[in-house]
């Protein structure tokens, strides 16, 4: 399925890539690990500077406002800044903070998040969760869903809605194709020079549209409902749950 959804236009279908971001490369060569860490640090810095961590924490807390002592699973945590905010702001929330990348998990485990009494840090693949059915009140996957090709993305929806009552996906919006072209044109000159921009261009080409998210949820399970909001100039938010 195209990232723009089953009925994506011809132009939209051209604005896709199978090229990997630095973050997705499996290489454990020191130079590649260092480049991945630099992208994660840049994400943490931009999230702090432009308020993404605050905004995402507000969305999470809004979603579980009626759960007294919520158990939250963060998938693809990267740097752990979202979990840090949730631990700071919610007096009783328990966080399981995870990522697939061993270096990121180790860095989070070594930080104040790892030392927090209400946090557990673990390596976990969002497509195959090592968790019991309904173990969590909410699972959140922020700025990560576009990393996965459609089959794996549908598995995240199936797994997230199995292990948690609600799966919250916060991701980049996929702009209409003409606007997308303009955005890419402004980013492309910097892509060979700055690893963060390189990954940003690929992320943009791999972002899913609302139609694609609906199709992925339908493929993940007939009993899964998905609600979508935001997009275009704000992050795209998808809330999925089993009936
Ligand atoms: C762009 S970073 C987002 C980091 C952070 N959530 C944020 O909002 O800045 C994407 C993260 O997804 C992780 N990731 C990619 N594939 C994954 C998978 N299958 N399961 C869990 N995490 C994954 C990467 O290791 C990376 O840390």
TrEMBL record:
Q: Name one Pfam family in it.
A: Methyltransf_25
* CDD domains in the record: AdoMet_MTases (cd02440)
**GO biological process, any:** methylation
MF term (GO), any: methyltransferase activity
Stretches assigned to the Methyltransferase domain: 72-162
The record's annotation in Gene3D superfamilies points to: Vaccinia Virus protein VP39
Q: Which SUPFAM superfamilies match?
A: S-adenosyl-L-methionine-dependent methyltransferases
Q: What UniProt keywords are attached to this protein's entry? A: Methyltransferase, Transferase, Ubiquinone
According to the UniProt entry, where is the signal peptide? none
Query: What InterPro entries does the database record attribute to this sequence?
Result: Methyltransf_25 (IPR041698), SAM-dependent_MTases_sf (IPR029063)
Protein name according to UniProt: Methylase involved in ubiquinone/menaquinone biosynthesis
């Amino acid at each position: 399925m195209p990232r723009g959804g089953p009925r994506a236009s011809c132009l939209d279908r051209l604005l896709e890539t199978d090229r990997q971001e630095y973050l997705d490369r499996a290489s454990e060569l020191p130079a590649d690990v260092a480049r991945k860490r630099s992208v994660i640090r840049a994400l943490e810095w931009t999230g702090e500077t432009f308020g993404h961590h605050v905004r995402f924490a507000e969305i999470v807390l809004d979603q579980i406002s009626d759960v007294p002592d919520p158990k939250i699973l963060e998938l693809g945590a990267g740097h752990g800044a979202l979990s840090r905010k949730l631990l700071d702001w919610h007096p009783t929330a328990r966080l399981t903070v995870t990522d697939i990348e061993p270096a990121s998990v180790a860095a989070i485990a070594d930080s104040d998040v790892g030392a927090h009494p209400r946090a557990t840090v673990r390596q976990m693949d969002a497509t195959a969760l090592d968790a019991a059915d309904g173990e969590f009140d909410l699972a959140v996957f922020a700025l990560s869903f576009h990393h996965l090709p459609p089959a794996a993305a549908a598995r995240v929806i199936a797994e997230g809605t199995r292990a948690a009552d609600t799966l919250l996906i916060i991701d980049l919006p996929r702009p209409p194709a003409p606007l997308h072209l303009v955005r890419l044109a402004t980013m492309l000159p910097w892509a060979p020079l700055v690893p963060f921009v390189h990954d940003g261009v690929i992320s943009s080409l791999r972002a899913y549209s609302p139609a694609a998210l609906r199709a992925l949820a339908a493929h993940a399970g007939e009993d899964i409902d998905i609600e979508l909001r935001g997009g275009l100039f704000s992050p795209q938010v998808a809330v999925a749950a089993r009936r």
